[in-house]
Amino acid sequence: MNKKNWLSSLLFQLFKKSPSPSDSLANQYRHHVGTRMLFLTLLTIGIVVALLYDLATGPSSLTYVDLIKGIWSPNSLSMSQQVIIWDIRLPYALMAILVGASLGLAGAEMQTALNNPLASPFTLGVGSAATFGASLAIVFDFSDYGISQTYLLPIFAFSLACLTSLIILGVANSLGGSIQSVLLFGIALMFGLNAMVGVIQFIAEEGELQQIVFWTMGSLARADLEKAFIVSFVLLLCFFISLRHAWSMTILRSGEEQAQSMGINVKRLRLMTLIRVSLVTAVALAFVGEIGFIGLVAPHIARMIIGESHRFFIVASTLCGALLLSLASIVSKGFIPGLVLPIGMVTALVGIPFFIALIYQHQKRNPI
Predict the structure, then answer these.
(1) What is the pLDDT of residues 3-18, one digit of tens each?
(2) Where in the chain are the domains?
(3) CATH architecture, domain defined by 97-365
(4) What is the CA 177 to chain-centroid distance, rounded?
(5) Which residue in 300, 278, 256, 366 sits closest to 118, CA to CA?
(6) Cβ neighbourhood burial of 350 (10 Å; 0-12, 13-18, 19+)
(7) Is 70 left (phi over 0), alpha (psi -120 to 50) or beta?
(8) Which of 39, 52, 215, 291 has the greatest number of CB atoms lying within 10 Å of its CB?
(9) Rounded to two decimals, what is the model's pTM?
(10) Using CA atoms, how far apart are residues 99 and 281, in angstroms rounded to an integer?
């Protein structure tokens, strides 16, 4: 290399602009955001694929072409095929996605509000409270007051679920937020509510008993488009309110003292969060019954990949719940040929081992 080229190279190395720390942080931030958006996109694609597969799964020989024709141009198919798609399969598949999304959202918010990784609408008794409320609405007929049971079930389920959430919040505050104590109280509350449901089953008439048993097993068999619309409306309402409070929830996850130091009213935030959890859980379960573990599993999957930033975590947990319950719906149809299992059984079979693994993992990190 001659003297002139060597001097030019030296001057270039000395005076070239090196990346500033702010540029490096900005690149890292863009990378993290891009990775999270990619994961959310893949989840959305997975939900669409699962929806189509769920629609195509069943005893009748409908092809994917028939499904697409039946959705976009119903009159191109026979009347029986239209009934299968619009009255049976589409409400069933849509309700699986909507209920799964509702439980995923509820689980994510409850775990953050109570700072409890084992919290979910069922492990803390909120789901059992909704079942108890629905059982009361089924046995004690209020149709004379001009209220349809389609709306009466969600009202009763929400009222009992909300009351239970407030009790759990009070216990969590009085016990200093101890994870083990709150979880044990929630489990005790769940068993107590299940015992009350048993009493109602004992005094119920045959038709009422059948409805209550349907509730406790968890099934999508009675889904229809009107119920799907109600669930979707409440889900979207609670979802966008949750996104509005995403920043506050992210700070709360860092600790109650830090949240208060930044001007966040922690008590009000927790109260409003648990009311949202009660509403979205009660309305989702009012039409399908008890479906456990989705609200526990979905947030953990989302947290492992997305992290604690709630503007992404809330969306990811909601989508994970939708995908998990849609896959469970497919399994419930194909597990035993010619028979559709109640979807609550499928989620329990998958969720119980996961729940045990979570308890074991938490015990290793926080030995008594």
Answers:
(1) 555 545 544 454 454 5
(2) 97-365
(3) Orthogonal Bundle (1.10)
(4) 23
(5) 300
(6) middle
(7) alpha
(8) 291
(9) 0.84
(10) 8
